[in-house]
Design goal:
423 residues; alpha+beta; ten-stranded antiparallel β-sheet; 8 helices; 23 strands; 35% strand
Length: 423
Amino acid sequence: MTTAPAAVPLVTRTVPLTDPAPLLTLLPRSAPLAWLRRGVGLVGWGQALRIETHGRHRFADAERAWHDVVRRAVVRDEVGLPGTGPVAFGSMAFSQRSTAGGVLIVPEVVVGRRGDQYWLTTSGVGAVLPPAALGHREAAPADGEHGAVRFIDGARTGAEWEHAVASAIRRIAEGRLEKVVLARDLRAVCDRPVDPRSVLTRLADRYPGCWTFSVDGLLGATPELLVRREKGLVTSRVLAGTIRRTGDDVHDLALAASLARSSKDLEEHEYAVRSVADALAPHCSSVNVPEAPFVLHLANVMHLATDVTGVLADSTSSLGLAAALHPSAAVCGTPTEVAATLIDEIEGMDRDRYAGPVGWMDAEGDGEWGIALRCARIDAADPARLRLFAGCGIVAGSDPAAELAESDAKLLPMRQALAGGGA
C-alpha cells in the first residue's frame, strides 16, 4: 500500500549543499532515517510516501510499487550521483510469515554525502515540496535521557536456546543439512522513551567500519553488506565465522590467526560465500570470489570476511538483487529450504526484520542493502521498550555453550549503545 494515491506524482528536487555538519546531527528525534558508514551516506526525515508489503512477494511488490512511483515522478536533479533524486529507505522481514512485512519510505528531506560532495533532496506529492532548507535543528539528545535500562530474556532463556542449538547439531549429524543459523532475542526496558539519535551516534562512534542504519524503528550497525549496486558493478560482503575480542591486541592477533585456521569457522564461511556467489551468478556476466577470506576486526568481535564482486548483466535493481540473495547461508543455512524449515521448527520466535535486508535504493535501481544484524527494533506502541537480536551459524563442530557466548558478544553493541557503555 502507499500513503498517497498512485495517480498523484512524486515531485523531487536535488541541489548541491555545502558541508552541513555531521549527518547524524541533522536528524530529528521522530522517525529518523539513516544509512551511514564513516560519516558518508544518507540521512532523512519526514514521510512523503510509504509503501508497505507482506508475505512471500514482499520484495517484488515493493519493487513494483517503487517503479510505478519513479515512472510518474517529476524529478529535478542538479547533482546526478547514486543516492540523489528520488530515494527510498527500506527494510524487509526475514520471513514471509512475519507480521513485520516490508517497507519503503520516501523521506520529505534527504541529506547525502559522498566523499566531499553533499546534497539536499526534497520530495513531496502533488507538486508540494518542503522548503529547500535544513530548517531548525532539534536539540541534541541528552546523554542517558532514557534512564536506566533493564535487559530481560526474550522468547527463550539462554539455557533453552542452548537446548535448541544442541537439537540443531543433532539434525546436522544426521545428515539432514550442513548448516543452520539460530537467532535469539533479548528485551530492553528503559525508564523513559529512547531517543534513536543517541543510539545511532554511539553505534557510529564505536563501529565506524559498519553501516549504521535507522529505518522504521529498526536501529543497528551491521558489518555485513548484502549487496551494493552502482553503475553496473555489484558487491557483497560475506561474514561467517566469529571470535570474540579480548581487548589485548597481542592476544587478539593470535585469536585472529586461530580463526583463520579454524576448520569449523572456515566450513561455515564457505557455505555462506557459496550461497552468495550462486545467487549473483544468474544476474552477472562475471563473478569474482577471492580464494581465501580475510579477518575483519571490529570493536567487539572478529569475523571471517569475503568480498564477492560481479559485473551486472541485466537490469535487476539493488532491491531485486537483495531479494535474490535473501536469505543467504550467513543468516539461514544450507540447504536454504531445509534450514529455513528447521528455523521455523526450533527457533521459537518471529525474527521480525532482524536478518532481513535494510538499506536504500534510488530511481536508477542503484543502492546499498545490508543485512539487519547487531540491531534492535523500538516498540512502536511503547518507545521505552526494544527488542534486541543476535544469531549464530551452527555446523557439525558447534558447541552450544560456545554459541551462546558468541550470541552474547553479538548482542553487546546494542546493549552498550542503550546502556551508554558498560552493559
